[in-house]
Amino acid sequence: MKGLKMFSLLSSILLFTFALSAQEYTVDNNLSSVYINGTSSLHDWTETVETINGALRADVEDGKLVKLRSLHLTIPVKSIKSGKSGMDKNTYVALKEEKYPEIKYALKTYKIEGSTVKLTGDLSVAGVTKSITTQVESRVKEGQVELTGDIAFKMTAFGVDPPTAVMGTIKTGDEVEIKFHLYFK
């Protein structure tokens, strides 16, 4: 009888520990979307990120995100598309794609308040890494974690010269805004 009680106690502890352990998620490219918005002396523009790779380790309880253990994202520069081959080429040159073929993000710290999560992490663009902070909305549904938000920054902060076209007569604005809706499953 004593052995049965001990077995029950150990089983309960193991089940409780398993329930609280971090779950691993990967980016679902079919559902996720990332847009890069900017301005130029001619018109506003948008580029779409076609491929984003990433992993999230998080604790979820009662359908809510309660702890982030890690978040890593990678965007192949050549997966950034505008629908215009000339603009795409200018983007790849500006981002120094031949030397730095990926844009990377790694979470450093976070703060969760309800469904709002303040993320601080290292963003690496064109060989320059900067700490950035942004606020995202989180949602947990049907085994998926969604993170939605945006962030704006100056390209020159990452050593990126805003692209020009038509012999410098069309100039891109320095600030870009990244809007994202990431699904992890």
Automatic annotation (TrEMBL):
**ATP-binding as a keyword?**
no
- So which domain of life are we looking at? Bacteria
Q: Which UniProt keywords apply?
A: Signal
Q: Which SUPFAM superfamilies match?
A: YceI-like
Signal sequence range: 1-22
User: Matching InterPro entries, A to Z?
Assistant: Lipid/polyisoprenoid-bd_YceI (IPR007372), TTHA0802/YceI-like_sf (IPR036761)
What SMART domains does UniProt report for this protein, alphabetically? YceI
Q: Which residues form the Lipid/polyisoprenoid-binding YceI-like domain?
A: 24-185
* Name of the protein this chain belongs to: Lipid/polyisoprenoid-binding YceI-like domain-containing protein
- The record lists the organism as Owenweeksia hongkongensis (strain DSM 17368 / CIP 108786 / JCM 12287 / NRRL B-23963 / UST20020801)
